[in-house]
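Worked problem 6 (solution included).
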Amino acid sequence: MMNSSSASLFKERDQFQKRKAEANSFLASIEKRPKVDKPSSQKPNRQKSTISRSKTSSELTGDYRTTLTSSNRLYKLANIVEKLKERYLGGQTEPVTLDEIIQETELNIDSTDRHWLASEALLTKETIDVKTIDDVNKFVYKPPLNLKGRKPINLLNFLKSRHERCEGAVTVDDVRDTIPKAKADKIIQTLIDSGDVVKATSNKKEVLFYTDRPYNLQVHPKFVESWRKISVEGLEDKMIWEFLDKHGHYGLKKNIPRYTLPTKSRRGGHRPVSMKHNEHVKDQLIDYSNPTASTK
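Solution. The predicted structure is:
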């Protein structure tokens, strides 16, 4: 299966073929166009036109050759990347030299393209890992996922570590570009059947999520059924709030009634009641402020 980078290269090649056909038709129309004699006299002090001249046929031919060279290089690069990927998925993980991979692809590459591949293209390609052995650069396919093996436990541990680091899910295509497609699909299905992994669709791509079992929430089937019957698709927030308010509910925090504590009035308030002491023995007390009072 071709990865995204190879697909983009082949797409650019198809676009080039389209531009090539347009350029050929344009050149043919120029050659068939009848020549018009220029007038012998021109108006004096005529202002020069500011419109840029159209390209000549020789300039168009030069652009065509430049585009052709670029397209051929991209095509050769895509074939080399695809061959390295095929070797890796087939179990041949040892790096190889540029001459070895060219021999396997049976590509006709001249010295200029060979220099471009060895000094620039393969060194900067994200899906290619460069190994320098005895001062010689060797190349091997670099898979999108760094799995430690090709077993279900390896993929499960990888998804778990991404989940714990909050790095998100991985796509099924990335798994297939790391493990051969048939084996990858079998591993994914095994993890889905065991409940350790969940597969969903996002932006038309299948993605895999790790299932964190401690956070599994057991919901009564009646609530699940009621939830699935409720559809708010196409409803605005205002319509949802009106529906909730009509049935005596409150939505979020926007229309929840506010409760305030009563405040004391500054005017006309009651004075605090002062505590009175010894009321229960007031008949036994003697007022010494009166000198005529007698002691009982």
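Discussion: The chain has nine helices and five strands.
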